[in-house]
Amino acid sequence: MAELRKAACPLNCWDSCGFHVTIDDGKVVKVEGDETHPITRGKICGRGRMLEKRTNSEQRLLYPLKKINGEFVQISWDQALDEIAVKLRKIKQTVGTTAVLHSHDYANNGILKNLDQRFFNCYGGVTQVYGSLCWGAGIEAQKWDFGNAYSHEPDDIVNSKNIIIWGRNVARTNMHLYERLLEAKKQGIKVFVIDPLYNATAKQADQFITVKPGMDGLLAAGMMKEILRLGLEDRDFIEQFTHGFADLVSLLDSITLEKISEMTEVSSEVITQLALVYSDRPTATYMGLGMQRYENGGNTIRLIDALAAISGNIGIPGGGANYANLQVGQSFAFNELTLPHRKQDSRQFSIMKQAEETLKASGPAIEMIVVTCGNPLTQVPDSGVVEKAFSSVPTVVVLEQFMTDTALLADYVLPTTTAFEEEDFYYSSMYHHYVNYGPKLVSAPGEAKSDLWIWTQLAARLGFGADFAYTRDEWLRMTLKPLEDSGITLEKLKEQHTMELPVEKVPWHNRKFQTPTGKFEFTSLLGQSKGKNGLLALAVPDESKWNNPLLAKTYPYQLLTIHPLRSNHSQNYHLLGGSLKLKVEIAPNIAEDQGLLNGDYVRVWNDRGEVRGYISILVKAHPNTINIDEGIWKRFGGSVNQLTSSRESDNGLGSTLYDCLVNLERIETN
Ligand SMILES: Nc1nc2c(c(=O)[nH]1)N[C@H]1C(S)=C(S)[C@@H](COP(=O)(O)OP(=O)(O)OC[C@H]3O[C@@H](n4cnc5c(=O)[nH]c(N)nc54)[C@H](O)[C@@H]3O)O[C@H]1N2
Ligand SMILES: Nc1nc2c(c(=O)[nH]1)N[C@H]1C(S)=C(S)[C@@H](COP(=O)(O)OP(=O)(O)OC[C@H]3O[C@@H](n4cnc5c(=O)[nH]c(N)nc54)[C@H](O)[C@@H]3O)O[C@H]1N2
Ligand code: SF4
Ligand SMILES: [Mo]
């Protein structure tokens, strides 16, 4: 008899959907949306549905593997754990615990996935990665401006007059915002999309504004110039609740609107018109993450925040500079779970430069890399260097569900469970503020074990078993401790499956900001305390004709590598079936200039590497722009990160994945 159970999507995504999962004969047979979920309301995307395939796939890793003479050999769990524990103990006794690099990302939104950090802290403190490939530049930017990065609750959107979707590929990456946009449009709320690509969201917009990639900060500066020229700014807000406005004014005075128009490749008329839209309050801004993956990414988000601030759109229903919603994750007892004080030693590599740092590390050199919830060989920039670094380290341990490009490089591959095979809570600090409960629904195939089981076993072998001597219930209760007063308990969550977290629904409505001055800061004291000048700037991407004219002559096209429609990063390509062809999407002018046709085979290259694929001419895109979706495995023609740079963003915490110039030419199919 088939059974229907409620569950939750574990994927790293804006939406954090509620599921209805059908189980038959001990197997997951279907994944659908839970129509009682207050935000996701029964609709889910193909990536969520495909979790059925991911769970049942014959490609699942079933046994611990060890590489011997270049070949993977099946070994027992005891052998794998004993050998890894011996190596960890030896490293600790000889060169010190920071000779271990913990390379991870956030492929699974389960709260107990953070126990890897507890393991490494209790072990003594390893080399950790800091910053984020994903959203690091913008998070830091909002911390400088507001003191934190908060979004309005999803249903607040109906209070807007205008909605600006700025660099977020909503129809593809954030489907429940897309649903709400369509509803808002029906109510007469105006929708504007600012993006170099004419994507599915742009098609639904009242107006699409194409912009030169990486130039959004300048565009925001242009709008601010016009708002001030026309006297449309919110004087009360500026005078009472902001710091550093005079610095902003002198910055805006240092450039003309004509120059901004030339650099952004947006006409002055459109800039003026958008200034009027911002002044016609409330205007909500929904920023995406693509546009901050540039050298100037932090400054870009800061200028857009400043635009929302001077136009009076902060702290009011229907407004907001919505980028991320960190208050969601901040609701849980993170320190109790991860025990940061147990670290005796520490070293940090930026997540962008983890490979270069590994290659040059000394005192101590990296002896072991442990990879959890990540596929760095595909996802980390400059993959040529990543491959070199991972191949150079004596022991690489990868906890995985599938034989990814990274797992192929490992010395030990430890097979892990998928979400329906273990119990956890799921939440996302990107969009809505509900936590979802995900029960264990089926048993894991073969000898696959949860990450938590692996940490528990290793901790016992290394003498800190007591730090992991908790039941699932106890772990989950530990994370909910700060929420008890709000009535959120494990029992209630198990019963209700999703619960609303006690967060600000209209952030900053009381105008009390979490910055050092307590105000919105155009000039950031936090930035200054970190050794920067804290000022806003008219900054451009590193790889642009404005900054590097010679490079721009050799490599005339800007390469974006946006998130794929049917895969969450690298997680689904091997399950899609059919023959996968790497698609090189190009702006129409490139096709005209080079006489390219759809289906032509081309190589795309720069000094860092080369990728080959088939031309697909976009109907509309900003001139000289190319896109290749990210996440593609080596065996399917990837990774596009062979082309991207590992430079860090202006504030040091974000990636510059889209700040990437390339050239392209047709070649013969081989
Ligand atoms: N289908 C799908 N959905 C996903 C994911 C996935 O892999 N697949 N991943 C999830 C994760 S982890 C994340 S971080 C989010 C990311 O969600 P998004 O922020 O929506 O995704 P991106 O693909 O980074 O880029 C979004 C948009 O930015 C535009 N863009 C690029 N450069 C610029 C620029 O300089 N200016 C402007 N204005 N726009 C620019 C791109 O053209 C694209 O339309 O998506 C989540 N959802
Ligand atoms: N060029 C380019 N590169 C990018 C991006 C881009 O837009 N362009 N986007 C960046 C962004 S936004 C992000 S968030 C990162 C994502 O980077 P990653 O998180 O590294 O990418 P994923 O492909 O989501 O997942 C990594 C692996 O985690 C495994 N996994 C899933 N669940 C579990 C689990 O429970 N336990 C363990 N041990 N493993 C698990 C999956 O099988 C998968 O192979 O990529 C970044 N890289
Ligand atoms: S991937 Fe995102 S949109 Fe798709 S089901 Fe999961 S949470 Fe929902
Ligand atoms: Mo991400």
Automatic annotation (TrEMBL):
Residues 2-59 form the 4Fe-4S Mo/W bis-MGD-type domain. It comes from the Bacteria. PROSITE patterns: 4FE4S_MOW_BIS_MGD (PS51669), MOLYBDOPTERIN_PROK_2 (PS00490). GO terms for molecular function: iron-sulfur cluster binding; metal ion binding; molybdopterin cofactor binding; oxidoreductase activity. Pfam families: Molybdop_Fe4S4, Molybdopterin, Molydop_binding. The keyword Secreted does not apply. SUPFAM superfamilies: ADC-like (SSF50692), Formate dehydrogenase/DMSO reductase, domains 1-3 (SSF53706). InterPro entries: Asp_de-COase-like_dom_sf, MoPterin_dinucl-bd_dom, Mopterin_OxRdtase, Mopterin_OxRdtase_4Fe-4S_dom, Mopterin_OxRdtase_prok_CS, Prok_Mopterin_Oxidored. Its cofactor is Mo-bis(molybdopterin guanine dinucleotide). Keywords: Iron, Iron-sulfur, Metal-binding, Molybdenum, Oxidoreductase. The keyword Cell division does not apply. Belongs to the prokaryotic molybdopterin-containing oxidoreductase family. PANTHER family: OXIDOREDUCTASE YYAE-RELATED, TRIMETHYLAMINE-N-OXIDE REDUCTASE. This is Anaerobic selenocysteine-containing dehydrogenase. It comes from Neobacillus bataviensis.
